[in-house]
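Contributing: when you submit paired examples, paste them exactly as shown. First protein:
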Amino acid sequence: MQLTRKERWRLAFEAVVTAGIIFLCYFAVYEIFRWFVVTFQEIFDEFWFFGNVAEDIGNQELWGLTPLVFLFLTLIAGVAIYWRLKRRYRQYELKHIIRELHYIAQGNYDHRIRGSYSGDIGKVVESIHVLVDSTVEAMEEERRIEQSKDELITNVSHDIRTPLTSIIGYLGLIEENRYGSEEQAKKYVHTAYEKAKQMKVLVDDLFEYTTVRQTAAPLEYVTFDMVQLLEQVAIDFELEAQKKGRDIQISSSVKQIMMRADTEKIVRVFHNLLSNALKYGKGGTLILIEVQKEGGNVSVSVKNNGETLPKEAIEQLFERFYRAEASRSQETAGTGLGLAIAQSIVELHHGSITARVEAGWTVFDVVLPLDNDF
């Protein structure tokens, strides 16, 4: 730490004052000792090992001491002065740190306490920097959450407004008897019903997302066969896949992989992944699900050979409310919460989910522990 000129002058003045006080203490102690020796000289004379010391001390002043004794006293004085100045220097360091902390507290979170510090003060300064970094990171995360909430309002408002407008429009025609025939009225009702189902999907996604994002979300663990579960999920999507000219295949290294997890939520994970593959894998013909046992984990890869996503999209797939198809058309309608929900469910099971593009395939890798008794 760089001392100011005022602080240096104060240290120099304190060194002089401390040296003067020490000299006065030496002088007082020596004079008291001389008075004691002179006053009670007969007592000292009785001890042979004092010799003529009593007489010598009585006739000698402090500055007349031998060089060795004088050097010893000077050394003690130097140590005392150094200790005193060291304490004062530490006080200046603390004042400097407090001033820097007040400056940071005013909102200058990118500022760091200047100077080099050692010992405990150095550890304190380092801890302060870590605390400030953590605070800044928490503030940035709070800003990202607020931004996500704003995006949620914008996206959901857009996705709900379109079907809601259609529902109000068609039901308004029926309410005002503006239809040509009963069959036309049924067509209006059917269209409004389909739009209402779209809105229900959006609301269900939002409810599911808020539920699985809670760290204390209850999980109902059961023992099941992962291979059989994936086969059942594939069957559920078989008809939709055929309509889009896709084939869903399952490849497993073993016939059976027993594990413990919440089957309802695990089904939701692979439901979202397959739905995502069918919705966005344009031009693809095959969705391949590869499952294998790796130590204490089960690894499942969901691959599709449709149109691959750019690198920047891969990096953002699991972000809240992100959609690779930016136009938000009704063909791919949704809140963009499907993969975020899948990630939250996997993390609740202490697993991981990642996305990558490999040799023309878009691949989602899910790794789950076989035993979830935590």
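Second protein:
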Amino acid sequence: MPGPAGSASMDLKVLFGIAVPPLVGLDISTSSVRLVELADAGKDGIRLERYASEALPRGAVTDGNIENLEQVVDAVRRVIKKSGTRARNVALGMPSTAVITKKIILPAGMSEEQLEVQVESEASQYIPFALDEVSLDFDVIGPVANSADDIEVMLAAARREKVEDRVAIAEASGLKASVMDIESYAARAALDRVVAQAPGHGAGQVIALFQIGAHVTHLSVMLDGATVYEREHAFGGNALTQDIVRAYGLAFEDAEARKKSGDLPANYTTDILAPFLESAALEVTRAIQFFFTSTPYTRIDQIFLAGGCALVPGLLDTLANRSRIPTAVISPFNGMKLAGTVREQQLRSDAPAYLVACGLALRRFAQ
């Protein structure tokens, strides 16, 4: 994501640019770092070469902000070693809340240099910071409908220090930041690839993606490859972990591990898990109703669940029953070939948490 003209803060192929293979996608979330490496499998499409994750200490990343760079670098180094990747180019994600995006209309026929100058001029109207404090990028979407003399351009800007924090993490870990994407865009890229495999390629389908993170659930609604609605809701899987901590007097890390393994007392399902599932269902149905009341849309045809919380036992069925909408847990690796080192059974339980990391890794194939 370059800065204002002539003062690029990073040696990138730009936010929307072409990635340099080989490339790994590195998703830095509140609770963990996740790495995915994909490869071109020729006529067989794409191959999942490797994936891995490492937990982050609580407080290392808060609301998308890097609070403890050393702890994050340590986790990234561990995940690189665990995965066995030799790739050094990395695609990183910025939280949607840290990036300002705006579609603008500009005259067609300008050179790249003229576009840069014009975009920078236009950006000052939409960005509540001085331009020398931001990293700025743009992508030409295409001609404006019914106006051959104009083009539509997507403008993206983020505070420079937030971008540089992530670049510093990559460099301290022995990596080169080749692409800086927006996390919601990366998730959509991974989702689009899965939807494209469905009958009719999902044409005309209103698809809701709930990414259930540790603290926040991000809802994106897509129609024919375009995002028509986005909103974050303050609800996540840590609520269940905290309930386990309070009920059984466990340390947070121990409670998180036992939540995933199921190693909990007999009353856990009825006393702890069931109320959490009801709360989750209420949050999802409220989010759907808010979508209906604040947009022209009156239906959702398919719900996909992603994130580390997506496979909590009973969550899928509870949400499907309450919403009365077809609901599935998404695997961003559907239809991919698997390298010999990837364990298919383990991947089934891990995959929903890797939507963003997979979308970032897909930038290797961007045109």
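If you have annotations for the second protein, write them as plain sentences, like these:
Residues 1-17 have pLDDT under 50 and may be disordered.
The first helix runs from residue 69 to 83.
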